[in-house]
């Protein structure tokens, strides 16, 4: 694919948005909680960390896809081992955030407030990002062919990272 292809242009924008959201999304959540009179809790901190960590993974994946769209040979294969390793801290952060949020719900009656909603929304976003990158492509609204595929009834497809990981694992088995 040529460096100025539609896919390369789209991915150039996507990775920058994803990278910016690493800071912007948690900062917005903290701002909303504090401006609503809430406090910084373990659930909020852990949800912010989980969300940001998954957005970092997303940034790496999108950069890897951009390199591939530009036709760079072996684009991103050097990142696969790191991304495989990063899935475990991502899972641990999501689990810790879920536990902290659960404890908060048990010890304090959850109310429909920024104090409760911010960590809950961030946790859901983190889990959805995990699924979107490591398992199935959930994001179909930003690219017409993906959207058409989804509404045609063909359903979700494996994520780009999952396909790259599977390809990398096959190559590792062949070379072993």
Q: Which features characterize this protein?
A:
176 residues, mainly alpha, elongated
Describe this structure in words.
This protein is mainly α and 176 residues long. The chain has one domain. The protein contains six helices and no strands. The protein has helices at 6-35, 42-69, 80-107, 114-134, 144-154, 160-175. α1 (6-35) runs antiparallel to α2 (42-69). The relative contact order is 0.14. The model has no long low-confidence stretch (mean pLDDT 87).
Distance between the termini: 31 Å
Number of DSSP-assigned strands: 0
Return the structural class. mainly alpha
Overall number of domains: 1
Unreliably modeled segments: none
Beta-strand percent range: under 5%
CA-based shape: elongated
Average pLDDT number: 87
Major sheet: none
Count of runs of 4 or more consecutive helical residues: 6
Task: Using the CA coordinates, give the radius of gyration.
Answer: 18 Å
> What is the ordering of alpha helices and beta strands?
HHHHHH
- Please give the share of residues in helix: over 70%
Brief digest:
This protein has 176 residues and is an all-alpha fold. It has six helices and no strands.
Helix-strand layout with pairing:
Blueprint: H1 6-35, H2 42-69, H3 80-107, H4 114-134, H5 144-154, H6 160-175
């Amino acid at each position: 694919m040529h460096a100025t292809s539609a896919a390369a242009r789209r991915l150039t924008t996507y990775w920058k948005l994803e990278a910016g959201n690493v800071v912007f999304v948690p900062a917005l959540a903290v701002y909303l909680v504090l401006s609503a009179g809430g406090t910084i809790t373990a659930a909020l901190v852990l949800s912010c960390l989980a969300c940001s960590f998954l957005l970092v993974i997303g940034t790496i994946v999108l950069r890897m896809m951009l390199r591939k769209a530009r036709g760079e040979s072996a684009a991103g294969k050097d990142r696969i081992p790191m991304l495989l390793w990063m899935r475990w801290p991502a899972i641990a952060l999501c689990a810790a955030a879920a536990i902290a949020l659960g404890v908060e719900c048990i010890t304090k009656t959850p109310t429909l407030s920024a104090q409760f909603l911010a960590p809950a929304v961030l946790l859901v976003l983190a889990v959805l990002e995990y699924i979107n990158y490591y398992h199935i492509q959930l994001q179909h609204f930003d690219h017409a062919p993906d959207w058409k595929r989804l509404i045609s009834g063909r359903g979700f497809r494996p994520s780009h990272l999952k396909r790259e990981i599977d390809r990398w694992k096959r190559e590792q088995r062949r070379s072993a």
